[in-house]
Design brief:
Length: 217
Amino acid sequence: MSTPGRLGRRLVQLYAGLALYGASSALLVEAGLGLEPWNVLHQGLSELTGLTIGVVSIVVGAAVLLVWIPLRQRPGLGTVSNVFVVGLAMDGTLALVPEAHSLLVRVPLLLAGVLLNGAATGLYIAADFGPGPRDGLMTGLHRRTGRSIRLMRTVVEVAVVVTGFALGGTAGPGTLLYALAIGPLAQLFLRVFAAPAASPGSTVVATGTPERAILRP
């Protein structure tokens, strides 16, 4: 059985990572220079519905989980927690951070948001409690179609960016910077936050190898 100390560390990693992910996404929103692909969609739906971007993120995450059923994906604690914690943290951070107008403020906000997002991604994936709902969608499509994960991710994320942009979401240089930087940053922080290996015979709480995870909650 997993030791209480190791399990406790993993739980702290999970929830700290998800909260920081939501906070980093809020910084990208405040920068106004381009969002992560899924948040382009969330922001566009927020503009359309009048709901906050965090609430939209929760609703979309829950809807994506329903798509897991025909794809025969199994959610973990991290999957369900992702749906709620990221959206709540995003709205909470947006309520606290003052609006930025000058590029002298917006550019550092963008860079800080991307860096913090990479750290948060490594933190929660290294906890190994299951993929985020959107990542599970891509791996599920990969298994059902036989197409590569890279292709599935590209198709899905291009679709959500185009749809979100059409609805009023912000896509721009920040979106491109995020796409180029998130992989290397997340891999770096995965190594930094990697949990100690479980002792032989310990019970695995969630399946999946963090290093093979798709880097998006």
